Amino acid sequence: MRTAYQQLIDEVCALLDAPATLEGRDFQLIAFGAHDSDDDLALDPVRTRSILGRGSTAAVRAWFEDFGITTAHAPVRIPPEPSAGVRTGRLCLPVRHGGVVYGYIWLLDDGALRLDDPRLDEAMAIARRAGALLAEDARGGARIGNLLHALLTGHADEGPAPAGELADALGPAADGPLVLLAVAPWEAPHELPATPPGALALTTLPGQRAGTAWALAALVRPPAARALARRLGVGAGRGPHGGLSAARHAVAELPAAWPEALGAARAAGASDRLGALAEWAEIGPYRLLTALPPRLPPDPAVLPLLRPEHRELAHTAETFLDHAGQATRTAEALGIHRQTLYYRVSRVEQLTGLDLDDGEDRLLLHLALKTAGW
């Protein structure tokens, strides 16, 4: 199917003698056409970002949508807007099917192409063909996503077992290895992006934690997992966190992989050390925390330390324990003098009644602090 999209965008480039891109309605890149040019148009920064990053920024999307492209049925001319990063104007050809917009064909606009140019009518016919393909893709993606949802939740309607039906729908792609990617929090539980490159199936599921009520689940092959996470917003500023399960070799094994993916995403949100995307195999003690019930009340001994006015002491204690109680390394990590560290550790002991020279007391405090951030 990706080859079909590429052929269509190549047709547009040849017809209009201009560089063009095809994006889904979520502004994720689907195909782009190469263009031989010595001018600056083909090097437009927004186009470059779309091609290299497979998408556009929120400011760029907002600027384009302000011109009514989501409801347009004809080409739309959009002027430059440097403050949004749009240095070159655009011609937008809405990609529609059955009254629904499924995407956009974008042309860099130097003003030479008139809106009454008959070639634009031919280009719109190509856009309608692309719309029919995107609609077909969306129907197939929705069915596969529903099967993945049924498999991961155990809520199957009448009919074949969801694992077998999902494997049949995936075809050769069902042969492992496969991983699940969790993206949490997912702010639009009833909206899924157009299936991006690399994703075999998408669905949304409860996030099982206050503040992350929903998560996106994506089925993907391991080599494509990190690139897919980036396309879904993981690691973008204050965007969501991602988690990857251990690999599975059969679709029927995926239900056990989802708690791993979701737990890894939660660990990424709890620990800066793990980065925005964490793998189940790499989250260490957080694997044990995934078995704890949600909203577990803190241990009474640690309650005083968790008060807002003692946030700095709690951070000091956690860093001290993360560094195995080694004062020099802890002081360096915190950027404080060792004497300041010793004073803070003594204050922690006074507040909690715990002896940080005692292994079990250390374990209790460390677990309590990790759980509080969980």
UniProtKB/TrEMBL annotation:
InterPro entries: CdaR-like_regulators (IPR051448), Homeodomain-like_sf (IPR009057), PucR_C-HTH_dom (IPR025736), PucR_C-HTH_sf (IPR042070). Residues 313-370 form the PucR C-terminal helix-turn-helix domain. Coiled coil: none annotated. PANTHER family: CARBOHYDRATE DIACID REGULATOR, CONSERVED PROTEIN. This is PucR family transcriptional regulator. It comes from Streptomyces sedi.
